[in-house]
Amino acid sequence: MIKVFTDFLYPTEVEDVVKLFFSDVSLCEADEADLVSLFFKDGDVVTNICRFNGCETRNTFNCDSMDELQYIRVAKRYAKTAVYNCLKNVTGRRMPWGSLTGIRPVKLAVQLTEEGKDYKREFADFFDVSSEKIALVEEILQQQRFIRNGDDYADLYIGIPFCVTRCSYCSFTGGEIARLGKYVQPYIDTLCKEITSTLQFARNNGIVIKNVYFGGGTPTSLDTVSLSRILDCVTVDAEEYTVEAGRPDTIDREKLDVLLQHGVNRISVNPQSFNDCTLQKVGRKHSVQEMYDKYGLARQYPFVINADLIAGLPEETVDMFAHSIDSLIKLRPDNITVHTLALKKGAELKLQNYRGQQQQVARMVEYSHDVLQKSGYKAYYMYRQKYMSDNLENVGFCLEGKQCVYNVDNMEELRSIIACGSNAISKRVYSGLNRIERSANAKDIITYINNIDQYTKRKFQLFE
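RESULT FIELD:
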């Protein structure tokens, strides 16, 4: 246990950096601390000091002419960097993303450029990001040449919190559809009400829906009638219409027909691994052969198809993961997303104190990036999460022209998201002000159903 004291106004920022080096961290009073992070402001000069195990690091910046939002951003950067440099000096360890703990490195690169800075130099010299990760950011920026359509446009997100089984790495709210059966129809009734009123609100306020995304859970865990009923409510002519059909054991011809009839043009079919023993360990009730069968069925339709893999699943070796990547590339999906296992609160693996496969995961990710690029795939979006194995990242790859625009909009926060469903978070992007405001629905299904009018009203106030 590493005990940390900080007088910084944003203590979780300091704590997040310490967690890059030590898994067990807690905040405490100054006289109990192993690591001390101090923050001083003298006029326009701000100084950060970190002391740990006989080592002291410090840095300063001048906040003259900064507005409040810019000051907060820069203060966080400097406080975190002082802590990171101290821990790096003591432990001798260097993190691939340096002192960056946020989930959007590409967005930060854009912000630094808009501030008149060379983001590559800032990433290398100030944040201590590795050259490999800087190159990854540059590749993604080259693929994200989308037109920003202004604040009158938005994407629509619809959340389905049900799945056929709960995977051991999953921390999402909701759960197994068989166990929650009595709530399925009330949830669908409530969701249809919310979608209908939301789209009417958008029309009344001149908001144009560009892209639609059904996430989960697994939307295709619903029966065909229920799925069709929800799709009937989406009365917009979206440019990109995605439905996650991630579990192969939820896919059949009838559901694919319904998706196609409603204008869906993108789906996912996610193996996560091409090793049957791994699928059994993590609680996925489909086989590798079923993945091949259902993928082949989906390929008979004109959908753009995404497929996910996870690096670092329990007891998988580098060779086993390489087998999964090689097998998936042979299928030639339009998009491949390589996730790094994140041990998040609420997941069964976290409750079991699974520690992950340190060092091996970095080799898995490195192999996947290398072989995907050689096979014609380009990295086009990325995000990071807390508690990720080896402090790495999730990266979406695509064949030429097959980027998922919604993923880019969402992860880089380029466009407002109007969201429906439990645990759905609406985001209003004020592009000219570099500001984002949010409104969240309840995570719990019952609370969402019972209070839908309250959540809808709050969401509409956000966009009025």
